């Protein structure tokens, strides 16, 4: 018997005496039984039953057809064995057919025989993990759902065999060092399954007091792991956005396991995580923002999956009555999305068929899961929409992590800018040299021939100039350790028609002007890294994945310690081909582009919170829309056209200005400078108190008063932060020294009576 340290029993939820305790409660089974004769419930039941009778029990490995059990076969090595066992127990529960009970007894006998004869110590680590998961789901569900139907001796033997299995499960994967990672999906799924078994085994017929004590200890240990290990990590990464706990990079899948835990605890104990965990409500966001218009999830991590109404969608809709999940449940439970039997089973078990239809919601088109570091932008929620996502993880997470910080992808009628690797097998040459590496993503790689890269601590891999390996993060406290810091979000902003992301690492390349562009791909070059090709060991899926496509490498011809790159991307299709464009603009203040009557300005050094932008030689005779980023949030700014104050506008809370300018003919200089005094200057045609020159200035300026008939003019000069640097009365032509001042942008303010004038001054 395994023994553990007990905590105060009052701190743990009590396990309910009645069954069923897992997957669903007795009210749900009763409802299905009473309603499977009409409506959508009937249609779903008939669909499920047809598939079960014609595809599952006729499988040669898992043959249960007919009533003659001497012809039946059962092979636990089949990947479908656990599912067929659960399906059979479900049908026994709702139909009470004699043949179903006979099948459940047959599966029970095979389960008992397998556990009695197996030698766990001879099994490979991952093979045993998969085996234990499948058998525990099959045995536990059969015991719980058929508890009162099974003959007493079979029920007792099944409970004893399940206890033996879980004793091995707990010792190897939960109580060992492998059970200490609270961001690993392997550990999480194992804790979902063993918690389910502990709930099933509690006070089960056939277990003596010592074994019942062990079951309760297992329950408490796993409960502590969830509340003290997993949920703090999950809550941090999801927070109020409902974003995404990494779960070993397995995209969508981890949430289905978590909802299974929530339901097992809700139906089997007095614990309700749906109400106790504030992030669960908005966790449905990942079904909206992870899904591409082709209904496959974005490629973040080791797996991509298609969208169908799973237990998360159904249970979220039922628990919260949320229109987001209600629409998903009604839409993606239609027959065309029921691609195999398991989704039909989940629909029958979990869908609330009584909920009325809802119109398609329109959540915001822009979304940020900030702690995870994922930003998603869409033009619309229809199939023709464009979707862009940008990824920058603050901290490294699980061991399956890809070195893809500061990467992005674009989808429009299909994958365009893509993640290019293929998950053929864990640890293969392709996996470690290409798939998980920075070069497989749209990213910035800094190549140094002296760099040495490893996968893990000792396995050498090809030098791709990308991001290095680090140990996997394990606990909540590790999130904040410097060792695990991998990225930093500098700026995130969104507006009516834009999403703006700035991160700290790092198509037509506009800047720098001298670049080398190479196209890489084709036979023998699909997965090229530093002189070698690393193809997958298995044939890739080229329908929903996009491995081995052509890629473009852009390399500056002259390298510096600090590089600023600016690209423009335009999307097109077969009818309207895309032509990337834009006129590059760069000076010591700003970098940007004049593109299709849009002026985009960013800080030339990639920093935020600045006070000045400039774009020279801007063609006129048109109206241009201005997008100026990296400014001081909520600060008032002036816009000058050819040194004439033309417009007053304030930056938004993200330091972004958007406005329109009507430009006359010729070439123009557009400047944006802060208004440190917070006043509104007079518009063109105002009374002019003074003029000055030169501008820009070097060491001094000359001021000329326009009218002194009513006394002197009060003048002050302030810097871009509003600090007073000069103050005087202007009574005549006056020369003011600028020596000792740091170069930059200043504002000259003049006041005479009720007239106020201020002008921008640039010191070179």
Features:
15 helices, five-stranded mixed sheet, Beta-galactosidase, Chain A, domain 5, Glycosyltransferase, 764 residues, elongated, five-stranded antiparallel sheet, Immunoglobulin-like, 4 domains
Reconstruct the topology from this structure:
Elements: H1 26-35, H2 39-56, H3 81-95, H4 98-117, H5 125-145, H6 152-174, H7 185-201, H8 209-238, H9 253-268, H10 273-276, H11 285-289, H12 311-320, H13 323-331, H14 341-350, E1 366-369, E2 374-378, E3 386-391, E4 407-412, E5 415-417, H15 429-435, E6 453-455, E7 459-461, E8 489-494, E9 499-503, E10 508-511, E11 515-520, E12 528-529, E13 532-533, E14 551-556, E15 566-568, E16 583-586, E17 590-595, E18 598-603, E19 612-619, E20 622-628, E21 636-641, E22 644-650, E23 657-663, E24 667-674, E25 690-693, E26 700-705, E27 713-719, E28 724-730, E29 734-737, E30 744-752, E31 755-763
Q: Can you give a write-up of this model?
A:
The N terminus is likely disordered. The protein is α+β, with helices and mostly antiparallel strands and 764 residues long. The strands form ten sheets. It has a five-stranded antiparallel beta sheet, with no helix packed on it. It has a five-stranded mixed beta sheet with strand order 16-17-18-20-23, with no helix packed on it. The chain is 28% helix and 22% strand. The protein has four domains: 358 residues, Glycosyltransferase, CATH 1.50.10.100; 202 residues, Distorted Sandwich (Beta-galactosidase, Chain A, domain 5), CATH 2.70.98; 92 residues, Immunoglobulin-like; 74 residues, Immunoglobulin-like, CATH 2.60.40. It is built from 15 helices and 31 strands. The longest helix has 30 residues. Helix 2 runs antiparallel to helix 14.
């Amino acid at each position: 018997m395994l023994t553990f340290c007990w905590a105060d029993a009052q701190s743990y939820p009590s396990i309910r005496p009645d069954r069923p305790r897992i997957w669903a409660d007795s009210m749900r089974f009763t409802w299905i039984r009473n309603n499977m004769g009409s409506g959508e419930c009937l249609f779903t039941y008939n669909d499920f039953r047809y598939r079960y009778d014609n595809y599952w029990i006729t499988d040669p490995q898992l043959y249960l057809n007919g009533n003659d059990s001497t012809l039946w076969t059962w092979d636990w090595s089949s990947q479908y064995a656990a599912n067929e066992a659960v399906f059979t127990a479900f049908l026994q529960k709702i139909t009470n057919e004699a043949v179903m009970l006979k099948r459940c007894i047959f599966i029970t006998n095979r389960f008992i025989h397998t556990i009695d004869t197996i030698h766990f110590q001879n099994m490979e680590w991952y093979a045993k993990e998969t085996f234990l998961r499948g058998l525990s789901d099959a045995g536990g569900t059969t015991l719980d759902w058929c508890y009162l139907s099974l003959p007493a001796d079979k029920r007792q033997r099944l409970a004893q065999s399940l206890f033996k299995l879980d004793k091995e499960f707990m010792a190897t994967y939960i109580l060992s060092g492998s059970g200490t990672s609270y961001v690993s999906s392997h550990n999480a799924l194992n804790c979902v399954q063993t918690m389910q078994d502990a709930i099933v085994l509690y006070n089960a017929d056939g277990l003596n007091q010592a074994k019942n004590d062990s079951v309760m200890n297992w329950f408490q240990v796993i409960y502590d792991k969830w509340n003290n290990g997993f949920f703090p990590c999950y809550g941090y990464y999801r927070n109020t956005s409902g974003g995404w706990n990494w779960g070993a990079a397995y995209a969508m899948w981890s949430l289905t396991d978590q909802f299974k835990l929530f339901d097992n605890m809700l139906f089997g104990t007095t614990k309700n995580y749906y109400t106790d965990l504030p992030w669960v409500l908005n966790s449905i966001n990942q079904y909206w923002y992870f899904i591409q218009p082709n209904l496959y999830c974005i490629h973040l991590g080791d797996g991509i999956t298609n969208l169908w109404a799973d237990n998360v969608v159904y249970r979220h809709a039922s628990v919260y009555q949320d229109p987001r999940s209600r629409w998903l449940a009604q839409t993606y439970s239609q027959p065309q999305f029921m691609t195999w039997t398991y989704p039909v089973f989940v629909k029958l078990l979990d869908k609330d068929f009584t909920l009325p239809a809802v119109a398609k919601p329109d959540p915001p088109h822009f979304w940020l899961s900030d702690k995870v570091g994922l930003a998603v932008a869409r033009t619309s929620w229809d199939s023709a929409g464009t979707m862009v996502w940008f990824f920058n993880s603050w901290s490294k997470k699980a061991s399956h992590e890809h070195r893809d910080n500061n990467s992005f992808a674009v989808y429009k009628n299909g994958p365009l800018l893509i993640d290019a690797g293929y998950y053929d097998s864990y640890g293969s040459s392709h996996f470690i040299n290409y798939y998980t590496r920075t070069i497989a993503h749209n990213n910035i790689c800094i190549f140094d021939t002296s760099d040495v890269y490893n996968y893990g601590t000792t396995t050498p891999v090809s030098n791709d100039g990308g991001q290095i390996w680090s140990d996997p993060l394990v606990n909540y406290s590790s999130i904040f350790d410097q060792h695990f810091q991998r990225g930093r979000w500098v700026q995130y902003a969104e507006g009516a028609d834009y999403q703006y992301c700035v991160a700290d690492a790092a198509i037509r390349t506009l800047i720098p002007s001298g670049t080398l562009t190479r196209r890489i791909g084709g036979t023998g070059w699909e997965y090229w890294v530093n002189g070698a090709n690393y193809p997958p060991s298995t044939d890739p899926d080229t329908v929903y994945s996009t491995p081995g496509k052509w890629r473009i490498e852009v390399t500056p011809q002259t390298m510096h310690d600090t590089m600023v790159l600016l690209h423009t991307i335009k999307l097109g299709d077969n009818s309207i081909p895309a032509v990337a464009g834009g006129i590059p603009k760069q000076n010591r203040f700003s970098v940007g582009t004049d593109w299709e009557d849009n002026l985009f300005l960013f800080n030339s050094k990639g920093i935020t919170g600045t006070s000045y932008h400039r774009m020279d030689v801007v063609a006129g005779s048109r109206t241009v829309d201005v997008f100026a980023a990296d400014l001081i949030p909520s600060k008032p700014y002036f816009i000058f056209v050819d040194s004439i104050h033309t417009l007053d506008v304030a930056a938004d809370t993200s330091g972004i200005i958007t406005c329109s300018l009507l430009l006359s003919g010729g070439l123009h200089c557009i400047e944006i400078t802060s208004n440190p005094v917070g006043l509104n200057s007079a518009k063109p045609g105002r009374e002019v108190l003074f003029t000055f020159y030169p501008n820009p200035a070097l060491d001094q300026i000359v001021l000329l008063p326009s009218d002194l008939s009513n006394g002197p003019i009060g003048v002050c000069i302030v810097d871009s932060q509003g600090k007073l640097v000069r103050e005087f009365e202007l009574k005549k032509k006056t020369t003011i020294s600028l020596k000792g001042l740091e170069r930059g942008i200043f504002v000259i303010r003049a006041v005479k009576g009720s007239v106020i004038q201020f002008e921008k001054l640039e010191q070179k």
